[in-house]
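Predict fold of DUF3224 domain-containing protein; 120 aa.
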Amino acid sequence: MTRATASFTVDTFEPVGEPDGIVASAVLTKTFTGEVEATSTVRMTTAAQTAYVAMELITGSVHGRKGSFVLLHAATQEDTRWEIVAGSGTDELTGLSGTAVLVRHEDGSHTFTVDYDLPK
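Predicted 3D structure, encoded as tokens:
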């Protein structure tokens, strides 16, 4: 496993449709800087503001290797999992696998860490 860390900003947050009081959806865009240099689009659905699922297409580079991959988010108040979707890596990221975590800091900034394997 190799670890890459980056900061990121949320550039846009656009609600999709009208929330029904329990379920809501949104599309976000992000910019990553650091060992991951990329942009992403996230399609997220939340439930009761306590759980969410999302698919995030990340396009750019990881440790200088260019391509894209999809990150699956699944979170509840008790558990959060972010996993690279098998077979989603492209170009120099073909075969990418692994997991990621997000840390929110008190100052409002975010750190993204991905632990990954990549074929040689």
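DSSP finds no helices and eight strands in the chain.
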